[in-house]
Amino acid sequence: MDASPPATLRVSADTPARESWPPIDDQCPIGRTLDVVATRSAFLLLREAFYGATRFDQFTDRAQISDPVAAARLRELVNAGLMEKVPYREPGQRTRAEYHLTAKGADLLPALLALFDWGDRWTFAGGARIGLRHAGCGAPVHAALTCADGHPVSASEIELHRRR
Amino acid sequence: MDASPPATLRVSADTPARESWPPIDDQCPIGRTLDVVATRSAFLLLREAFYGATRFDQFTDRAQISDPVAAARLRELVNAGLMEKVPYREPGQRTRAEYHLTAKGADLLPALLALFDWGDRWTFAGGARIGLRHAGCGAPVHAALTCADGHPVSASEIELHRRR
DNA sequence: GTCCTGGCTATGAACTCCCTAAGTCAGAGG
DNA sequence: CCTCTGACTTAGGGAGTTCATAGCCAGGAC
Asked: Model-level pTM?
């Protein structure tokens, strides 16, 4: 549990010091993301969507959240474009609505999976009883840091820089 | 913004249906992780730790949160083992405390980086003005899904299974 | 000793999140 | 038409998170 070496990111020479950045929540993508999903219930609903839930009662039952919270959060997720309401009709039943992840919502999977990894590594003695594996080869799946050239990347090799 | 193909995970044949799982928040690593970091302020403090903040006033200034919230959240993060308080002494100053990420806290970097990626892709027109790149080769860094055998993995290729 | 500064701590109010319990509403079945 | 069910909505309240402001305290400077 030692803190060395530091796990902080580098800052490139052409990027101004962190102190002089403009109000950060407007500029940092992490803050922007947290503006959309910051509550426990939003994460849980997205988790259940990834685990296959589509109907309202599935979300409330599986995420263990109450009806009002589920309704409010699902509406927010739909408004934010992460999910969409799709009507469906089972034979002998009336038309109902399902909630499906959009591409925007599905793109949060790496983040959810990184949280899964962390919880697996640090909050269970010996690992959780469920795991994620590659359906093709059976090897466990992780959210790993990689650069676009395919190199594996460690925290100390990441550099924060100003674009354009 | 179409929802097909589904971005949900598969469930392996030897894993019982989602409905029959035990109370999920005890078993799902994502829920466990959210027990430790679920507030916006916790994420922001971790973000600033990755961006290099170590001192109390740096955290409050950069994460734009008030003193009481920063103090409470930092204490929680220390108690949870994600950060540690380290005394330091500048010449002519009295001893003060710095906050450093532990290995446990630093291990959340992939999750933070996945949130960074998402915010960059979906909340800015044309991308954010800051980016993350590999200090070695200059290519952008992402949190990508990979399996332990090194294959790139898409959402539909991930299988949820019961371990042991 | 007294002053001063950085690092918290205390207080109180506003707001958000979440819960339970009860009510509404559309529409298929009868 | 009436009933029933699933999908919410409404009402009320408790807990958690946040803020602004103010106060405390250790200890180096003097």
From this structure: 0.90
